[in-house]
Amino acid sequence: MKKKLLITSMVVTMLSAAASSSVSGNNSSGEPATTEEPQEATIIEEVTNGKEEYGGAISRVSVHDPSIVKEPGTGTYYVFGSHLATAKSDDLVNWEQICKDYEDVNDNPVYGNLQENFAESFRWAGFNDGDCVGGYAVWAPDVHWDDRYVWEDGSRGAYLMYYSTSSSWKRSCIGLAVSKEIEGPYIYADTMIYSGFSLESGVDEKSQIDTKWDNDYLNLKELVALGSDNGGIDEISEEWFSADGMYNHKYAPNAIDPTAVEDAEGNLYLVYGSWSGGLFILEVDEETGLVIYPGVDSTDEESGNFTDRYYGTHIAGSKHQSGEGPFILYDEETCYYYLYETYGSLTADGGYNMRMFRSENIYGPYVDAAGNNAADSGKVENSKYGIKLIGNYQFDGQRGYKSAGHNSALIDGDGQRYLIFHQRFNEGSEYHEVRVRQQYLNEDAWPCAAVYENRNETIANVEDAAVIGTYEYVNHGKENSPNMLETGTLELKEDGSVSGAFEGTWSKSDSGKGYDYVTITMDTGLEFKGIFYEQTNDTGEKVMTFSAIGKNNACIWGSMVK
Hints:
Number of strands: 34
Oligomer: single chain
Shape: globular
Largest sheet: 8 strands, antiparallel, barrel
Mean pLDDT: 91
Structural class: mainly beta
Distance between the termini: 27 Å
Radius of gyration: 23 Å
Strand order of the largest sheet: 27-28-29-30-31-32-33-34
């Protein structure tokens, strides 16, 4: 099927600052080109009903950085994403586009008149400035239902939309908009978190905005005046600035990619951040939806993570290593908070890939399968940290997948777990689609992503004979690599041995949850624990699969060859 290129009329941001920096060898921050944070692409491709040669006609949508929320009244699922793109689904399989990228910016059904509604955030970043000269840069909103929110008339309950606007890889801000209806329109409430400011007056490239911290379009001067006893901060922090007075991006975050999360007791928090100083978390006032600033610097007693007076508690990354799109989900069954983030650059050839950690405490420490602390991931090459969920791969005769990333996650009312993300393809373009995969807990309580996308198939216990055979096999590894991974074959034999891509053993056991565990052990002693699941592959054929997570943070998948 031919794809039709659709170039948005509003030029939003350049495809990648990294592309230009590769010529000079450095980016605008002076960091090596490999650490530059790319900006969002504005070119998308329109495809009707997806790739029909790959598994039949499913209604597809393009929503970058999709954040999922379920409307409690109707049970409809929504994804809100960058560039105003929005979609909904009744079944998490077929999707309907509500808004495409920057569609109807003057009268958008969700955002209203964008320039007027977000005018306060745009004073700092995101409209006709910096990387978005001639257009907008509105990124990665997250919508959360809060029944404790109090309106001016005293009524309660609102959908809270946390969004970000940005003009560069460090000058950004996070705001809040609210609505009584999930599809909006959302009304601006406040801009809460700013990044990229400087100690003295100055301007960024392609901008006339003075970046000095005490300008009145920032909230820092107001917070200092309030003081920590009254919901503000006592003074600006020396940590926010480098020796030259510029924003210290190795310590402090880029204020984008906000996501709301409730803890086990129902308290509300906001996790956010991208590259720069890493990921941070702040408590939220449930009656206003606004963040609560710590006011003073401290160290969290349980996690050992530092808390910044303004930005909150640091939980992952730093020193401008890749890591963005944080999403935290509490699982009542396991009593863990699962932290997802995405490494690499977002383009098809950028090595974008999702990582997973978990913690028993909302503030951390978040650790991976190897026991590494996410808060330390900026100290060394970060590919060593976090379970890598999906790399770039292609099974024989099926579609090639690249740069899966910026995910959200959902545990539905029936207990079914889902991973939701945007997916690019090995087809020479930046086109992306929303993808949903079911997840099932392995023996160590790690959610394993299903090998094929969600079609609402039911997992089940199976006989040994159903899983014995030869599988096309992929090891997703641990690298932030743009390369397509090699697939091989792995045979699970009747005698419990494994041969092919490696030698070893395998075993199957009943999870007690309606499906079977699998343990695959390499002859080196490395174990991978996961699940068996018969699914429909991309050509519409039913095949047995396995998905397993290793203590080395790599995921392995198998798709049976018939």
